[in-house]
Amino acid sequence: MLRNLVRFHNCLGHAFSPPTVCPRGQMFKLLPLLSVNSKSYSIITERKKFYEDVSISHGEGGMFEINLDRRKLKTPGGKLFTAPNEALAIAVANEWDTQKDMLKFYSMHMTTLCNTALDNPTFRSKDQMITAALKYLETDTLCYRVEEPPSLVELQNNEWDPVLNWIEDRYNVVIGSSTSILGPEIPQATMDTFRQHLGSYNFWSLTGLEYVITQLRSVVLAFALIDKHITVEQAVLLSRLEEEFQIGHWGNVEWAHDVDLYDLRSRTAAGALFVHFSSESSTVKRKLMQE
């Protein structure tokens, strides 16, 4: 069933975009910064476009800056907006360059994640971020199984077990699944292995990975996605398996389901791209903007 869903949704195209943010400074009104752990929305979601050209320039310490006409982009916290490499800078610049007459801040997800990494509004350390991410392993979507109806039980086993088996083999850990409301008891050795693995990410990449985990409500799916074992479309549909099952039986409000699905796919895709881009150390050998 899921494979058919994947094929169906693949025909509808791909979406790449996560949360909501709006930089400020002289150019912007102050907006509340979105945390990757909260689902809140800015009061101002759109604004009339005020610039013509977007460009990238080299900053101090090998960082890259984004310029709107001749003005430098800043974070909601008032810091100079900088990206650690050209690949991520290009992704952010592209978000600003593709805006039309109105700036739709809710679609500028790479910008949001960069702002979160730069401002760190909750003042969290890497250890705190890792601990928060691992909390999702205790309630991982793939670990909670139903006992009925039989068709849903079979669907969960057929679609979730291969991914669960993959991650256990990949990291030499034990996770398991359970029909209990408490979920499976995760061995301490498994938690230690994943803590060590998460610790190998830099602060920026960890910001993106934690965001993907929260979107999918699953450490297992997030790791499988970042390792390119599954696609964004598969990760999203696997995270919504029970909902898709119910829709297959009872139908749905088409527009509401589609908007929710595409939004989740967009945010998840952007988070995954952010992880890869923020880990990129090489320079992109091409010009971004043509004058």
From TrEMBL:
Taxonomy, superkingdom: Eukaryota
Q: Which InterPro entries match?
A: ATP12_ATP_synth-F1-assembly, ATP12_ATP_synth-F1-assembly_N, ATP12_ortho_dom_sf
Q: How does it sit in the membrane?
A: Peripheral membrane protein
GO term, biological process aspect, one: mitochondrial proton-transporting ATP synthase complex assembly
Where does the record say this protein resides? Answer: Mitochondrion inner membrane
Residues in a coiled coil are none
Instruction: List cellular component terms (GO).
Output: mitochondrial inner membrane
Task: Indicate the principal place this protein occupies in or around the cell.
Answer: mitochondrion
Keyword entries, A-Z: Chaperone, Membrane, Mitochondrion, Mitochondrion inner membrane, Transit peptide
What the protein does comes down to: Plays a role in the assembly of the F1 component of the mitochondrial ATP synthase (ATPase).
Q: Which family does it belong to?
A: Belongs to the ATP12 family.
Q: How does it assemble?
A: Interacts with ATP5F1B; involved in the assembly of the F1 component of the mitochondrial ATP synthase (ATPase). Interacts with FMC1.
What this protein is called in its record is ATP synthase mitochondrial F1 complex assembly factor 2
